[in-house]
């Protein structure tokens, strides 16, 4: 599994810690930045991961900012991305089983590195349940189509 990861300045330290977790799991990842605690704009980094996952270059994406909120909003603007904002292990497992999420976001000002590691491991190792959940995820794709290029909104 190939993982894309990015953070803003608020998530930089937690990103560095999550990278160690990915290494301990034997997973390859690409770090799209940011590379310091200097202030940056979270949309500039969230979009890099979301687009790379949407293009199929990476299987999963992990985004970290202060709250996780901004990053999750950015990622969910990209067609094909289903991003979950995660701060507990129950939701990490449930969103993989039910929503087949391909990107997850966390807030470094909300949780600590130990819980973040548990969430990341569970989210990366839980399979999608399929079945009735696949039909529901299909309905999300239908909604995306209604508001996407096919509907003449946002396209050129
Ligand atoms: C940066 O101060 C902060 O706004 C950002 O990290 C994130 O929490 C936005 O949603």
From TrEMBL:
Q: Does the keyword Isomerase apply?
A: yes
The residues forming the signal peptide are none
Which keywords belong to this entry?
A: Isomerase
Q: Record's superkingdom? A: Bacteria
Any idea which GO molecular function terms this record carries? ribose-5-phosphate isomerase activity
* Methyltransferase in keyword set: no
EC number(s) reported in the record: 5.3.1.6
Q: Could you tell me which InterPro entries the record lists for this protein?
A: RpiB (IPR004785), RpiB_LacA_LacB (IPR003500), RpiB_LacA_LacB_sf (IPR036569), SPI_LacAB/RpiB (IPR051812)
Family according to the record: Belongs to the LacAB/RpiB family.
**Identification of the protein by name:** Ribose 5-phosphate isomerase B
What is the scientific name of the source organism? Tumebacillus lipolyticus
> What phylogenetic lineage does the species belong to?
Bacteria, Bacillati, Bacillota, Bacilli, Bacillales
